[in-house]
Amino acid sequence: MTDFGVKEAEVLIGRIFAPWIVDLGLKPVAFDAAGGDFVLPENRRLVHVGGVVCGQATASAADTASVVTLSALNGRFRICTTVDLTTHFIRPLPPGEIGIRVDVLSNGKRMAFTRAEMRARGDARVAVSATMAFSYLED
Length: 139
What we know:
By secondary structure, this protein is α+β, with helices and mostly antiparallel strands. It has three helices and six strands; from the N terminus they run ααββαββββ. It has helices at residues 6-16, 19-22, 55-74; strands spanning 27-32, 35-40, 80-89, 98-107, 111-120, 128-136. Strands 1-2-4-5-6-3 form a six-stranded antiparallel beta sheet. Strand 1 (27-32) and strand 2 form a beta hairpin.
């Protein structure tokens, strides 16, 4: 592991992502050699007319958390682009805090692959699962 931790991740989120992504309020919690943990805090603006957290918000949070996790494992942000994002909405997420775990499946010279799982606070069941592929645009 590198010296890229939670504080560096918080700065990165505010510096490189679009303002509406920053407005999600995604909070890095911890990083380890395999990935990272995040919290998506309760935000009533992310709840759609059906009374659950909208899929667009969870997909965006998974993508963002993955980029931040890759940065932590790389020790710095590497410019990258998402080339694939596959999201499975397994069960509805009620309004409230959401735990996100990102596991880095592969982190190569040109490509990286991650998996993110989301759970409602206090529920051990996975509600959203996403796999992502990223292409690094720089070394």
